[in-house]
């Protein structure tokens, strides 16, 4: 586990749960035969576990069942420049992440379909997925439902909490502005 001072770390399940509900896409990390595997998979909290699904073509699918894994949920990061403050500061990075460790296990098809419906309901207010949707029988052949036990977790919320309240609030604003600016710059580089 990497180091982070306690004033930037949260072990509150309510904070972590809210974070996962708002930012459900996780980096799924596993180790197999001395090789590290990563995938980006959305998870929801379902029956006190994290539930998602993995494509059967994904190399991680071959070894993930009954494996110890780490999930990292991401909300953003930002370089914080000393030029933004009147006090004598050094540059830093602020960020919001959640780390969770547990054991991954495959789940049965009916539970996977239930979790797909629950995930859609949680994330989409304009579309309702029904269990009788005509694409679900096709999709079931390409994906495998996956649950991860919640054995260990903590939030890593570094937002200049160790500074004054005004500094803390400005750092949060800078993170929001930086995220939007950098995302827009990157999106403008993409072409079809």
TrEMBL record:
InterPro entries: Split_barrel_FMN-bd, TR_PAI2-type. It comes from the Bacteria. Pfam families: FMN_bind_2. This is FMN-binding negative transcriptional regulator PaiB-like protein.
